[in-house]
Amino acid sequence: MAPGTRLRVAVVGGGISGMAAARDLARHHDVTLFEGGARLGGHAHAVEVDDGAGRPLWVDTAFLIYNARHYPRFCQMLGELGVDAQTQRADMSASFVDDDVNMRFALLRGAGGFAAQKRNFVRPAFYRMFAELLLLRRRARRDLQERRIAPSTTIDEYLAGYSAPFRHQLVYPLASAIWSLPGRHIAQYPALAILGFFENHGLLGGHSGDAWRTFVGGSVVYVDAFRRAFPGAIRLDAPVRKVHRLGGAVQLSFGDGSAVFDRVVLATHADRSLAMLGDASEQERRVLGAFSYNQTRIALHRDPRVVHRDRRLWASWNATTRGGRTRIAYYLNRVQSLPTPRDWFLTLDADDDDPEIAPHLRERTFSYRHPIFDAAAVSAQRDLPALNARPGALTFFAGAYAGHGFHEDGVVAGQAAAAALERTAFARPLELPTLQ
Ligand SMILES: Cc1cc2nc3c(=O)[nH]c(=O)nc-3n(C[C@H](O)[C@H](O)[C@H](O)COP(=O)(O)OP(=O)(O)OC[C@H]3O[C@@H](n4cnc5c(N)ncnc54)[C@H](O)[C@@H]3O)c2cc1C
User: Fold this and answer.
1) What is the enclosing helix (H) or strand (E) of 57?
2) Residue 144's domain spans which residues?
3) What average pLDDT does this structure show over 324-339?
4) I need a surface site. Which of 59, 110, 185, 383 has the fewest CB within 10 A?
5) Share of residues in the chain with pLDDT > 90 (%)
């Protein structure tokens, strides 16, 4: 194909990965972005609530925070969209409450949090936990540097020598809050992913060197800016059912018809992308089929019973153990500095009839899917670039699942898919961005 030819390109999936791919491709091609739902953003999902005084207030229900150091491409995108100033510092405090053994403390909140239960200072278990934290910090840093942790080692296996309270009251709740996954899944998570994240973000040291940020007015700010600036076509409520490769083109089928494009980027979750392919190759089945997903129910509500009754312990991320079950609640007022006297919480793993959330204080419940980064997925990640680099390829794949599952990974994967499309279509030697 002659360089400079304008292609008809479809991007399927309007999350950060699809938006990143569509933005890059629309510089040279006619791009249509298909989103199955009624709005763009995917996990960037802010909703409007009442601030208590009859005014609208936007609160985020999934993607909440990012930072400049680990999200360089996302930050660049925000700058290009002109919304980088519509952000503010996020409060990164965390509290750990175990009502079963009557222990509670908060991290990153100054003396108030630690003083919340003065008895902690004379508790051997409390000191032991902090001694173990220092030990883990030293050991994990060394093991990461010397590449001693196998990709298949779970965090539970890695922490086998540490006390149960340290694992269950500190490490797993912290990881659970970061990955927005119920605690029961965290124990089987790869140690490499968790410890690498902790180390990169300074969490093992008890303080984060990164200035985490959040959007003033919710992530809808950047999603709207994308929509306004995007030169291509956007089709909402347009779930793609099937993708068939014809000789030199691709046919997309919807509920009510079909359309043909020169190239397609599938920026949906790996299993959904695979399910769309009516003619999946063995390589596609092997690579995309290696990713599995966990579905999490998340409730947006105003019931303060999910946190401790002592407000000094209300941190941005709260892990509360009762009756042997540890639950995670985000206190959005702190994370997002919400200008409202009403309290807003996001509780992970919340059933519709959750006894801890009074029905009249429940706003909405959402269902989000997370990639599970087990050994099969980590191995498949290494094969993804090759899938996008096949000579004559008509379909390309992107998603945060290609990296650590965060927003920056979505941008990197979307841009990598766009670059691969350009390179394979025009045989241009273009460097693929490396996934972090
Ligand atoms: C509760 C929660 C909190 C999180 N918090 C953070 C955070 O603070 N910071 C961070 O960096 N990351 C966070 N993440 C991780 C987040 O998943 C990623 O950052 C990122 O948003 C994932 O983007 P994606 O484009 O890969 O997938 P998605 O955002 O899921 O986008 C995929 C899109 O494809 C659409 N789609 C699916 N099937 C079809 C179809 N057949 N046809 C058309 N469209 C289709 C979907 O509707 C969706 O819009 C969080 C995740 C969750 C669940």
Assistant:
1) strand 56-60
2) 123-207
3) 92
4) 110
5) 62
